[in-house]
Design goal:
- By secondary structure, the chain is of the alpha+beta class.
- It has one domain (2-70).
- It is built from one helix and five strands.
- It has one helix spanning 22-37; strands spanning 2-8, 15-19, 43-47, 55-59, 63-70.
- The strands form two sheets. It has a three-stranded antiparallel beta sheet, covered by helices on one side. Strands 3-4 form a two-stranded antiparallel sheet.
- The termini are far apart.
- The model is unreliable at 81-86 (pLDDT under 50).
């Protein structure tokens, strides 16, 4: 399973969708980066392979970054975006 995280301006948590296959994740990444490099903002409507009822729409000019990562197995904690803040004293 592959996760595509969209880091959105003024939003503390990423928007995420999953793809089962590497090729599908790569296609979605390409679709998003093409929209980011376009001259006019586009509305991107995304669905999730893991949860088909999950849908998200975002304007391409609001996206700061795209992260594609592979889930290797069940995980109880997932890092949001590029880093995770810890509360260690």
């Amino acid at each position: 399973m592959f996760t595509i995280d969209l880091i959105v301006k003024d939003t503390p948590m990423p928007l995420s969708v999953d793809r089962k296959e590497s090729e599908d994740a790569d296609k979605l990444y390409k679709k998003i980066t093409d929209a980011l490099s376009g001259a006019t903002p586009q509305l991107l409507e995304l669905t999730c392979d893991k949860q088909p009822e999950k849908k998200v729409a975002v304007f391409s000019d609001r996206i700061c970054a795209v992260v594609v990562s592979q889930k290797s197995g069940p995980s109880t904690s997932r890092v949001a975006g590029f880093f995770a803040a810890t509360n260690e004293k």
